[in-house]
Every structure is written in C-alpha cells, then in structure tokens.
Amino acid sequence: MAEIGGGGCCPPMDLMRSEPMQLVQVIVPMESAHLTVSYLGDLGLVQFKDLNSEKSPFQRTYAAQIKRCGEMARKLRFFKDQMSKAGVSPKEFLGKDVDIDLDDVEVKLGELEAELSEINANNDKLQRSYNELMEYKLVLEKAGEFFASAHRSATAQQSETESQQVVGEDALEAPLLQEEKSVDPTKQVKLGFLTGLVPREKSMVFERILFRATRGNIFIRQSVIEESVVDPNSGEKAEKNVFVVFYSGERAKSKILKICEAFGANRYPFSEELSKQAQMMTEVTGRLAELKTTISAGLDHRKILLETIGDKFEQWNLKVRKEKAIYHTLNMLSLDVTKKCLVGEGWSPVFAATEIQKALQRAAVDSNSQVGSIFQVLRTKEMPPTFFRTNKFTTAFQEIVDAYGVAKYQEANPTVFTIVTFPFLFAVMFGDWGHGICLLLATMYLVLNERKLSNQKLGDIMEMAFGGRYVILMMSLFSIYTGLIYNEFFSVPFPLFAPSAYECRDASCSEATTIGLIKTRDTYPFGVDPVWHGTRSELPFLNSLKMKMSILLGVAQMNLGIIMSFCNAKFFKSAVNIWFQFVPQMIFLNCLFGYLSALIIIKWCTGSQADLYHVMIYMFLSPMEDLGENQLFPHQKTVQLTFLFLALISVPWMLLPKPFILKKQHEARHQGQSYAQLEETDESLQVETNGGAHGHEEFEFSEIFVHQLIHTIEFVLGAVSNTASYLRLWALSLAHSELSSVFYEKVLLMALSFNNILILIVGLLVFIFATVGVLLVMETLSAFLHALRLHWVEYQNKFYEGDGYKFDPFTFTLLGNEDE
C-alpha cells in the first residue's frame, strides 16, 4: 500500500487490519476549489470518486485547462529531448515548491520554444548548406582531377600526332598527292556533361540504368571518396562516389536528370576551364570556413539557451504536472446546480478527518473566500478501499501479498506472519550458513547504500533486488540459522558448538551405517551432529529428518491459516463461519494430519521403530486391525477410530448447515422490511461476509449451496494435496545440499588433489562461478518461488479472500518520479 510516515497525524502502525475508512463529502466554493484540491494533494489522504463518469473528457468543466497543461507538458518534453541531444542535464529542484504563476510559465515556455525552434531551423539550414558545400568541394576535387588528367592525355596525344605528321612529310615514300582531312564545322558534335555524387551501394545500378536508358550513348567516370560524407537531405553519414557523365543532346540530358533524381544523386555545377575551377574552389573553401564559424556560434548560443532552460526545467515540470493533476481531480467533482460550488466525494482514513478539515480551512483563508468549505461523513454500504500504512521494511512483504490479491476491507492481513514465515520457509530449502553469509553481505551493501541507490536509475533486475532488500536480508539471516541447524558451510560440517558425540571404533566405521560409532559424549547441543556427514547413513538420516520436519511445518502453517479464518469470522461477527467453517476444518485437518504430526513427535521422543506409513494407510483401509509393533502409545486404536469418525463427520458439517442457515437469516432479515433505516453505528461500513452482501437482491439458494459444495471439496482434497505440497521443503533442501556437496567434492577437492597451482586456480574459479551462478542465484530464485507458492496457495487459501482494492489517494508525492 501507499507508504505514509508514522509521524504527526498518524497513529501507531497496525498491519493486522487495514485502516478504518470513511466516505466523506466536500462542498467547496468555486473561488477556493483549486487551492483546496492542491492542499489535499499535499496531504495525500483522500481518494476522490469520479462523479462525472457519464461525461466524456471534453465535456467536463476543466477540459480547457487540462488541454492547456497538456500543451505546456508537450513543450517541456520538447525541451527535455533537446537537452538530452545536447548533453545538458536539468538541475535538480531540491527546494520547496516556489509559488510561480502558471500564466507566466505558459508565456515563458512559449517564448523559449519559439526561440529554440528558430535557432534549430537556422542551424538546420546552415548545416544543410555546409554539407552541400562539402559535397561540392569533393566534386571539384575529384572531377578536377579527371579533367586535368584528360587534358594532359589529349595534349600528349596531339603533340605525338603532329610529330608523326612532320616526319611523314619529309619521308621519300610519301605519296605525291596527300588528301587533306578536313572536318565540316557544321557537323561537329558538342558533348555536355553532368557532375555530382551518388550513394556507393547504388553506383553500379546507377551506371547500368544510365547505359540502358541512353542505349550506350554516354560516357561515365566514377571516383570513390574514401571517407564518409554527411548527406544534405537526410543529415546522415553515407559512403558516396563522385561521377561525371558525358552525353550528347538534350533528350539524353533529361533522361540523365530524371535518373539522378530517382537515385538520390546530388548534382553540382562544374566548369571545364581550369581558372574557373580554381576560382570556384577558393569561393567554396571560404564559404565553408564562414559557415563553420557561424554554426559554432549558433550551437554555443543554443547550448546557453538550453542551460538556461535546464536551470528552471524541474521547477516548471513539477508545476505543470501538479496543475494537470489538480484539474484532473477537479473534473471528478460535480458542479452544483447553482454553479457556485463543487461537490466531491471520496474515501479517507478515519484518523485523517482532522487534517482534512484543517486543509479545507487553510485553503478558504488563503484564497480569501467569503464562504468556507463543508466537510461531512456519508454513511454507505459500499466496500471501502484497503489501506495499510507500511514502512520501508514491511512494504516489500506487503507487495508480495498484494501480488496475489489486495485484502478485502479490514480482512486479516497475511503480511503480519509472512514477515517471519516467508524467509523461514525459504531458509528451510536454502539452509547453508556459508551461502547465507554471502547473501547477507550482498544485501548489506544494498541496505547501507539505500539512500544513494534510491536516487539512481538501476536496471530492471537490480531495481527488483533493491526493492526487496529487506526480504532478502531476512532470508539470509534465516538461512544462516537453518544452515547452523543442518551444520553445513558450503556443504562442509563444522563442530562449532561442541565436539561430536560419537567416535569411530575402527577405520571402517565411516562405511557402515551406525556400526562402529560409539557415543562417548553428550548429545550435540545444536543442530545435526557433524559425524553424520560423509557416512553411508547420512542421506537416509537427513531424508527422514527433513521429510518429517516438512510435514510438521506444513501442518503448523495450515493450522495458522485456519486460525486466521477464525479471527476474520470473529471480527466480522459471523457465528456461522465460526461453527460451520472454522470448527469442522480444524477437526478434519488435525484428526488426520495433526495426528500424523503427533505420531512423528512421539516417534522422535520414544525412539520407536514403528512404520508411520503403515499406520496412516491402514487407519483408513483397516481401522479395526490391530497395530502390533506399530503401536506407539496405549489405546492408539481407539484414538484412531475416534479421529477417523470425527474427520468423516466434519465433511457434512462443513457442507450442509451453512447454506440453510444463510437462507433462514436472509428470510428473517428481509421479511416485512423492504425499507429499513441504516444503523448509525461504526459497523455500518463493515461488509458482511455471510451472504448479507447480496442486499435486497434475490437469495439464490442453489448458487450458495454449489459454492459451499465446491469449497468443501476443495478443502478436503486440499488438506491432502497441500500437506504433500510442503514436501517440497524436503526436496529442495536435499537438492541444495547435494549440489553444494558435488561442487565442493568434484571441483574444489579434485583441483586440490592435482598439486598444480594452475589447476588449483582454474578449479577455484569454476567453484566460485558455480556457487554464485547456480547456488546463490538460481537456487535462491527457485527457493523464493516455492516459498511464494506455499504462502499463496497452501497458507492464504485457508482464510484470505483478496478481492479488495487499494487505497489510491490523490497525492503529489510521486509526481516527480512519473513519466509522462
């Protein structure tokens, strides 16, 4: 539940029953409504009901104000995104809420958004121009190299041709008449060309399409650019090639232009003349230097503006969130017919009535209202919300219970006993004081640094572990305790409390069961005697011990669950549930499995060799048969017959009387009382659990009878299956012990036996990783989930309905941590 400090107005914490709640009505004048809701949000002890549920969000009184706050929240999200991209962190707002006007905030946010948008637009334009000039510079460099190379080649070829002609004229073999070659100037074809950049991955396709579209009447040259360039259109880096396409005719040119546009090729003008090329290169280089200086100055100005926004961001953000929450709450209040006041209803704890009235009076005074607010308590049969005041220690345990279902109003809270039983049952399965110490050290880091870690963003798994740090702390402490009982430290026994009570008579005693062991001292004072570890009888002995212990713990916890159902019935004054649910359930469970638990204890105390399986099986199959050597105490047969008879009687006792009694109560309650005045007592809020919740509805006897039949069958079968389910304590404890023993013997001891430092280091690392990964992570999670199941199914289903709903008050406490 919500965590509210225990100081000030709050009485001492009581987890057994949820806080007494009351339905209150508040009538607030319009001029003080905003301030009243604000003060109630600071108090955080009122859960408002929506009195306008039939209206759409746009039909409500304060829809325009919420839209206005939403627009401001959008601007703040825009600022946050811009600050994140620029690497500017908003300053933490540690002070109290400064009284700033929302209108001023709205105007300021509008001005800042306009200025920042203008700076961004100008910067984008400048950056685009800069990127275009960078591409243009590359085109000038690469295409210039191509034209210069072609010019040198043409000059060399022309000089070679002229020299050949001179030699030919002087030769004796030259013909007398030589035809002069002449070209008609009117038939000369002038070639045009286009230059630009095309993405490298499209360059081959680009060249092929150009060739096909012009039927080969082009000449194309491409040059690879080694470094990536920023594309002016997308703003992303890309690998590109510079191309030069020579063509003939306007028709070919139009085709080439369309293909360039389709392939996203950026075209740039280029001149054949070397002087113009040099001039263009000089101009481009100069403009690039100017743009770089301008962009740098713009970015500096933008960063200064974002830092200015960051100084006030958290304050503005909190203000807008609070205003939006206030108007959302005001929309849940109904407008009076006079349209001069708002009427609100909501749930609040009884102890908070004085604080709420003080807040209402303070709001009326501070808003200079001529009329004060009216506060009154309403009487209702509606089920109130459930509210437990928890602290940082009990919150995690309460959340474990709430994950199954929220307690009904003032129903007995399982958390009271779960704080102890949950870590204890976990430790029964995880018992090893070495592993417990490792868990304790890890948890102590979280506990000691909780103030620092609570303000940091942790990962999902780390966040979960930090939230349940006190649960893990209790689990580790109980694991150390049960580990000392099992006498296991990473599966190794230690005679901590005294020497072993037994000694070996000869060298072969470790291979025997009990032969060869002589008791020379007093019994080992605490836990399992270390001499059992390593013997052939270790597994049978520990199996028997842990299996019987699991049954004892299971029957004890199930009895606790049934006793809790008695507490509920007594609290809600339901005699029917006491006599026809609690009593027969206690008789049935204890006549069978309570009796089995008693036999286990008697067998431990007397050292009898009786077979308890035989006793329990033939108690049902042959109740009249003599027990013989399986008899543990005098008159055992008579006791068994009595218990069996009581167990059989308790089944119809649970099934039949309750539906008929409920029917009779319903008839007596509604006979001649169609309209009855509500009682003016504190019990008027209590929800009846014995059928009275149907109110004036028709009593469905068949439905009640079928429900009782299902409940009876579930309990009878569950008594057997739930007891068997507790054997998981034995199974997981044995698995944990054996895994730990395997890692110790087959990894660490084997590495030590090689007398090689390298093998020892490797073996030690494998042992550490196996212990942490398997035993401290996977086994911890496994034992946690099994302990969770035992509490949710075997324990809580005996008494816990869990069909309530949480008290969710209107509060500003968590506004700063919420994401929009």
TrEMBL record:
Specify one Pfam family: V_ATPase_I
Topological relation to the membrane, as annotated: Multi-pass membrane protein
**From which domain of life does this come?**
Eukaryota
Q: Does the keyword rRNA processing apply?
A: no
Q: Name the coiled-coil region(s).
A: 102-136
Keywords, A to Z? Coiled coil, Hydrogen ion transport, Ion transport, Membrane, Transmembrane, Transmembrane helix, Transport
Q: What is this protein called?
A: V-type proton ATPase subunit a
Q: Which organism is it from?
A: Raphanus sativus
